[in-house]
């Protein structure tokens, strides 16, 4: 487990975070002689400190903070960004801040590992402060001798004043967070999974203050769980900035799909064509956004029947369908989540088309009922009514579609074991810690964004499936915004009917 950038000057009551063996001794050739250290510390120009205007999302983040503040009067709230996660020795996975931290600060792909946002209770609310490790001056050896954070190694890092102006949020050095963490008591709540080291130190401080845990999960408290729920639920309805960013993510994802289609001749010729698909899409994600929002699924032929096929090491055969489930995450961390199932040769066979259009009909039926006031679970039910009817018509069910749809039966789910929808935003599976009453049993509100993604997966060895269908897997996944009087399909610009998909492929290949 990675530790955080919280410095080693932790309070005496805190357990030491497990040190991360980084094994750099064999590689480091940085001189340590006094002459070298004196020489490299001198002769640098003054840095010009230009303070940016507050970024666009700063006002939105302030509004979100105000709402969370109102829910937890008198509580100190600790929302860490999380630290670097070690991959091996002195290499780490790409850093991504915890989504709650990003939501409340407006800091996305440029955020600093190890940062912590703290809401300190005041007489009439909270004062929020962002603690982070600002860049070191040239009088420290950090800039040249620290491969994890030194500017010679990872590039320019911001000052406290720059970040404070950029995010319109008071900023202090990370060392100052020590005292706040050490002061944790029964009225301190922490987002537990964001940064294990911070959580451990808060648990220790709370225990020392006689504020023991009230659950069996280490030092977890019911207050921590309430905070996690509230932060998840705060994201159920998106604000205007979030919707704009989701549109940008969808647009970039559309470009990624087009890149793949244009490259299909090369993909078909390669023995690991699925990897080529992944590479082309992920190239677009890095070019136009921050990264992919989740591992790209490039599933050709029978691999499409494997719901989360991310191994992507198969060939892409001419005449097969390829299921591509992929999303670009933009710099603000908002991600699209889109699936298209495409005929690699440009035309659907009759049976491929039958399955494809059944799934499309299910998706359309689900979309048709979306409006404020219905329940989230009704979207799934609308899709399932179509799926059950179609598989019954094809003779796959031992009962009628109506009987299969009864809660105690559900035979049709053999061919689509996953749900139809999930909320989408900073996380691909957004708002996951929201209460059931507000999510799966919740009522839709304008501003919610979720997927509609029915599918049919006919496993190659499924004897209940007529032979002509076996090995065909289809999913169609769109990202949907609930509007005041209905819904908007944000990904409607990516062709989705069988005819439109064929025309699209023909156009891109000509
Ligand atoms: N890409 C994962 C999902 O569709 O939920
Ligand atoms: Mn999805
Ligand atoms: Mn998906």
Q: How are the SSEs placed, and which strands pair?
A:
Layout: H1 34-40, H2 57-71, E1 76-80, E2 86-88, E3 91-92, H3 99-105, E4 116-122, E5 125-132, H4 142-145, H5 151-154, H6 160-167, E6 171-173, H7 177-182, E7 188-190, H8 196-208, H9 222-233, H10 240-262, H11 264-269, H12 273-288, E8 291-292, E9 297-300, E10 321-326, E11 328-329, E12 338-343, H13 350-368, H14 376-393, H15 401-405, E13 449-452, E14 455-457, E15 473-475, E16 478-483, E17 486-489, H16 498-509
Helix pairs in contact: 10-12, 13-14
Please supply descriptive tags for the structure shown above.
510 residues; alpha+beta; Creatine Amidinohydrolase, Chain A, domain 1; Creatine Amidinohydrolase; 2 domains; 5-stranded mixed beta sheet; 3-stranded antiparallel beta sheet; 16 helices; 17 strands; disordered N terminus; binds glycine; binds manganese (II) ion
Overview of the molecule:
The N terminus is likely disordered. The relative contact order is 0.10. This protein is α+β, with helices and mostly antiparallel strands. It has a five-stranded mixed beta sheet, with helices on both faces. Strands 9-10-12 form a three-stranded antiparallel beta sheet, covered by helices on one side. It contains 16 helices and 17 strands. The chain starts with 33 loop residues before the first helix and ends with a helix. Strand 4 and strand 5 form a beta hairpin. It folds into two domains: 181 residues, Creatinase/prolidase N-terminal domain (Creatine Amidinohydrolase, Chain A, domain 1, 3-Layer(aba) Sandwich); 270 residues, Creatine Amidinohydrolase (Alpha-Beta Complex).
């Amino acid at each position: 487990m990675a530790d955080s950038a919280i410095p080693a000057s932790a309070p005496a009551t805190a357990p030491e975070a497990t040190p991360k063996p980084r094994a750099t001794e064999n590689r480091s050739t940085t001189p340590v002689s006094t002459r070298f250290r004196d020489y490299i510390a001198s002769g640098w120009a003054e840095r010009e400190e230009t303070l940016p205007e507050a970024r666009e999302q700063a006002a939105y983040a302030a509004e979100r903070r105000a709402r969370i503040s109102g829910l937890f009067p008198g509580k100190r709230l600790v929302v860490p960004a999380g630290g670097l996660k070690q991959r091996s020795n002195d290499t780490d996975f790409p850093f991504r801040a915890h989504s709650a931290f990003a939501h409340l600060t407006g800091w996305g792909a440029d955020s600093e590992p190890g940062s912590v946002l703290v809401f300190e209770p005041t007489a009439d609310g909270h004062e929020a402060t962002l603690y982070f490790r600002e860049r070191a001056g040239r009088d420290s050896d950090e800039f040249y001798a620290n491969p994890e954070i030194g500017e010679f190694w990872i590039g320019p890092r911001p000052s406290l004043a720059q970040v404070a102006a950029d995010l319109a949020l008071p900023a202090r050095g990370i060392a100052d967070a020590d005292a706040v963490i050490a002061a944790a008591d029964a009225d301190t709540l922490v987002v537990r999974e964001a940064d294990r080291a911070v959580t451990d130190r808060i648990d220790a401080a709370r225990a020392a203050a006689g504020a023991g845990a009230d659950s069996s999960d280490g030092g977890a408290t019911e207050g921590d769980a309430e905070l996690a729920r509230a932060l998840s639920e705060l994201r159920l309805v998106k604000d205007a900035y979030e919707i704009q960013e989701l549109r940008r993510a969808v647009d970039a994802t559309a470009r990624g799909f087009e890149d793949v289609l244009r490259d299909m001749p090369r993909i078909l010729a390669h023995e690991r064509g699925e990897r080529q698909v992944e590479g082309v899409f992920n190239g677009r994600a890095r070019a136009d956004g921050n990264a992919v929002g989740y591992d790209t699924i490039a599933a050709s032929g029978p691999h499409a029947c494997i719901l989360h096929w991310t191994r992507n090491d198969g060939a892409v055969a001419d005449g097969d369908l390829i299921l591509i489930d992929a999303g670009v995450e933009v710099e603000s961390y908002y991600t699209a989540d889109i699936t298209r199932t495409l005929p690699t040769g440009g035309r659907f066979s009759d049976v491929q088309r039958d399955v494809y259009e059944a799934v499309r009909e299910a998706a359309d039926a689900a979309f048709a009922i979306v409006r404020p006031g219905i329940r989230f679970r009704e979207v799934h039910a609308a899709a399932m009514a179509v799926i059950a009817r179609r598989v019954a018509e094809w003779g796959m069910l031992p009962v009628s579609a109506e009987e299969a749809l009864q809660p105690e039966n559900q035979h049709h789910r053999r061919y689509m074991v996953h749900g139809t929808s999930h909320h989408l935003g900073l996380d691909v599976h957004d708002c996951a810690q929201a209460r059931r009453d507000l999510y799966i049993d919740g009522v839709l509100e304008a501003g919610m964004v979720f997927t509609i993604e029915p599918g049919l997966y006919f496993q190659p060895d499924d004897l209940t499936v007529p032979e002509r269908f076996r090995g065909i897997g289809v999913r169609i996944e769109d990202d949907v915004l609930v509007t005041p009087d209905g819904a908007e399909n944000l990904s409607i610009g990516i062709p989705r009917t069988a005819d439109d998909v064929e025309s699209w492929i023909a156009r891109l290949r000509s």
